[in-house]
TrEMBL record:
Pfam families: 3HCDH, 3HCDH_N, ECH_1
Origin species: Thauera aminoaromatica S2
Keyword NAD found: yes
Family: In the central section; belongs to the 3-hydroxyacyl-CoA dehydrogenase family.
Biological process (GO), any one: fatty acid beta-oxidation
Key word Oxidoreductase present: yes
Domain 3-hydroxyacyl-CoA dehydrogenase NAD binding, residue spans: 314-488
Pathway: Lipid metabolism; fatty acid beta-oxidation
Keyword terms of this UniProt record: Fatty acid metabolism, Lipid degradation, Lipid metabolism, Lyase, Multifunctional enzyme, NAD, Oxidoreductase
SUPFAM superfamilies: 6-phosphogluconate dehydrogenase C-terminal domain-like, ClpP/crotonase, NAD(P)-binding Rossmann-fold domains
Identification of the protein by name: NAD-binding 3-hydroxyacyl-CoA dehydrogenase
GO MF term (any one): NAD+ binding
CDD domains given in the database record: crotonase-like
Length: 671
């Protein structure tokens, strides 16, 4: 191919400069994002054939799409794999192809702008150099573990070699992403540059032939030790890190990643069939199938609101408590101007202080960005922002008459096209809307605590809610990067109506003499992120009692011990004692010292825990499953898949099961 010529494939475009530099752009046909499907990889092999025939002086691989670099492998193709052999062939294809890329004689560079995930990062790791573009959308990750699989195309080999085993295993075991600046700090990228100079920087580095600067002696020595004499210790530490969060029985992938790095040099194809870390074991595990199902459920929730072009610039939140303050903070983080109303500046101040800490964490200490974000969060004790807002969210206490009065006032002040939303968790929209001249304007936007962490938001349709208002509310939820779940107005909607009976059954077990620690251990072993008794303590025992029917169910009374604790002012975490004693925000459980030594709570070496009674988890879960089915039957949520999605993303229900109703269908209804 002569200078300045271009050669196109269906998905790839190769162009050469007179300098000898070749640019290879990926633009997956008929797709909004680049993914490494079978035909994309097959064409890439053909591109390498062309480059082998006429080698360039250097090669830069980039994306022709604005949506990002490469989002990873094609999940749709992965979902259709019908055998372990097919899965093994998929791994082998990528492993051999990226090894071929890594072995070419000319310098290669990945120019990464936007998302670089999974197989996309493994392709970038096979290049000699990487430049990342310093933009908020640039994220790099190996998130395969979140799908119950392992990064089999070279990630387990090349990432530990590049940034060191400890940092690499941490990224692979959590699936968490890093931004452009952190990628540079870790050594994952050679340079981090602004968009305006990215092509020039890529050209200069690719053509320079400059070898990478050697690591400092101490770092080289540490890497040598971690990859040699201390390899087993590093692996054991990583396994312990994984075991603190998940069990191998339910989540084999993180443990397999450690095994494959430690014993097989990062090559999953070398693990013998039948080994508990083999591809056969991983791909035949129900966890992998169920986590892929959860991924598809998440994508379905993300699709809600895509038909909305609503782009709110100003949000007004009434109520500066924990919930309202955090809603306001999340909106400000997403670039919106937010006015936060409460009875006085003094009541608003704690919410602003809490928001500042959140902004510092999210902006990673960038004082300038923290200041800009804080400037968008405006205390508004007089509620003047309501007249300018595109979205108004009420987040005050659960009192029907007070909410009615507030909405009558808000309707009179709001713009005609402003969305009027309530964050109520237990009241019917129809009852609140009676105060409005136009009840069709009211919609529910129900967040979960803690707002910055939990991804789900229920978008509640009342009997009179206008379709356009509903569409705008759903679009708003997507604009703040949450997962909208459409639900109908009913007591507790979906999530609270299934959590109530679940927590009640756990407290009944405690009432019958089962230790709170035992109840919680049974549900954590099942795969819940937190035990139900600890959850009640975290929510607040007074709130649990106030929830009334949502917690107790028809004709049932709250447990006597719960009422006794509330009467004594023992309200759980916020008061320092409930079913557990709380110190520094953590529950003190059996095995913890009763005395404080040196200002710290110290744990005894715990005795082996007693065995969990058979059927305990199933008993506690049974009311949750029944309530989930009931919500589908009553039309509170559209179908069983959406119910599963809501319970997983709203309560943390064990993702490895694929959701409560899916779990029932596969294993049968717990007795």
């Amino acid at each position: 191919m002569s200078a300045n010529m271009q050669q196109d494939w269906k998905h790839w475009r190769l162009r050469r400069e007179e300098t000898g530099l070749a640019w290879l752009d990926l633009d997956k046909a008929e797709a909004s994002a680049n993914v490494l499907s079978a035909d994309v990889l097959a064409e890439f092999a053909g591109v390498l054939d062309v480059l082998d025939a006429v080698p360039p002086k250097a090669l830069v691989i980039a994306s022709a799409k604005p949506a990002g670099f490469i989002a990873g492998a094609d999940i749709e193709e992965f979902s259709r794999l019908d055998s372990v052999l097919a899965a093994r062939m998929l791994v082998e294809r990528g492993w051999l192809l990226f090894n071929r890329l890594a072995a070419v004689s000319y310098p290669t560079l990945a120019l990464i702008r936007g998302h670089c995930m999974g197989g996309g990062l493994e392709l970038a790791l096979a290049c000699r150099h990487r430049i990342v573009v310093d933009e908020p959308g640039t994220k790099l990750a190996l998130p395969e573990v979140m799908l119950g699989i392992v990064p089999g195309w070279g990630g387990m080999l090349r990432l530990p070699a590049l940034i060191g085993p400890a940092a690499a295993l941490d990224l692979m075991l959590t699936g968490k992403s890093v931004d452009a600046k952190k990628a540079k700090r870790l050594g994952l990228a050679d340079d981090c540059v602004p968009p305006r100079v990215m092509e020039s920087a890529a050209r200069i580095l690719a053509l320079s032939g400059v070898a990478k600067k050697p690591l400092p002696f101490k770092e080289r020595a540490l890497r040598w030790a971690m990859n040699g004499p201390a390899r087993a210790k590093v692996a054991d530490k990583a396994r312990a890190q994984a075991a603190r969060k998940v069990g191998r029985e339910n989540y084999p992938a993180p443990f397999a990643i450690v095994d494959i790095w430690e014993r097989h040099g990062g090559n999953a194809l070398d693990v013998p069939a039948g080994d508990r870390s083999s591809l056969d074991t991983i791909f035949s595990s129900p966890t992998a199938r169920n986590l892929v199902r959860v991924f598809h459920l998440q994508e379905r929730l993300k699709a809600f609101g895509k038909d909305s072009d609503f782009t709110p610039r100003h949000v007004h939140v009434v109520g500066a408590g924990v919930m309202g303050g955090d809603i306001a903070a999340v909106c400000a983080l997403r670039g919106m101007t937010v006015t936060l109303q409460d009875q006085s500046v003094e009541r608003i101040a704690p919410a602003i202080a809490r928001a500042a800490k959140l902004f510092e964490r999210r902006h990673k200490g960038d004082a300038r960005q923290v200041r800009f974000t804080l400037d968008r969060l405006i205390p508004d004790p007089k509620g003047e922002g309501a007249a300018r807002a595109d979205v108004i969210i009420e987040a005050i206490f659960e009192n029907l008459e007070v909410k009615r009065s507030l909405f009558a006032e808000l309707e009179a002040r709001a713009k005609p096209d402003a969305v009027l939303a309530t964050n109520t968790s237990s009241l019917r929209l129809e009852d609140i809307a009676t105060a409005l001249k136009d009840p069709s304007r009211l919609v529910g936007i129900h967040f979960f605590n803690p707002v910055p962490m939990l991804p789900l938001v229920e978008v509640v349709q009342g009997e009179a809610t206008d379709a356009e208002v509903l569409r705008r509310a759903t679009g708003f939820v997507r604009r703040i990067d949450k997962l909208p779940l459409p639900v109908k107005s009913a007591p507790g909607f979906l999530v609270n109506s299934v959590l109530g009976p679940y927590m009640l059954e756990a407290l009944r077990c405690v009432e019958e003499g089962v230790a709170p620690e035992m109840v919680d251990a049974a549900l954590v072993a099942f795969g819940m992120p937190m035990g139900p008794v600890e959850l009640v303590d975290t929510v607040g025992l007074d709130i649990a009692v106030a929830a009334g029917k949502a917690l107790a169910g028809e004709g049932a009374e709250p447990p006597a011990r719960l009422l006794k604790l509330v009467g004594e002012g023992k309200l759980g975490r916020k008061s320092g004692e409930g079913y557990y004693r709380w110190v520094d925000g953590k529950a003190v459980k059996a095995g913890d010292e009763d005395e404080r030594k040196g200002g710290l709570w110290r744990k005894r070496r715990p005795a082996p825990p007693p065995p969990i009674p058979a059927g305990l988890a199933e008993r506690v879960l049974a009311p949750l499953l029944a309530a989930t089915r009931r919500c589908v039957e009553l039309g509170v949520v559209g179908d069983a898949d959406l119910a599963d999605a809501g319970v997983i993303f709203g309560t943390g229900f064990a993702p490895h099961t694929g959701g409560p109703l899916h779990c029932c269908k596969v294993k049968g209804r717990p007795e």
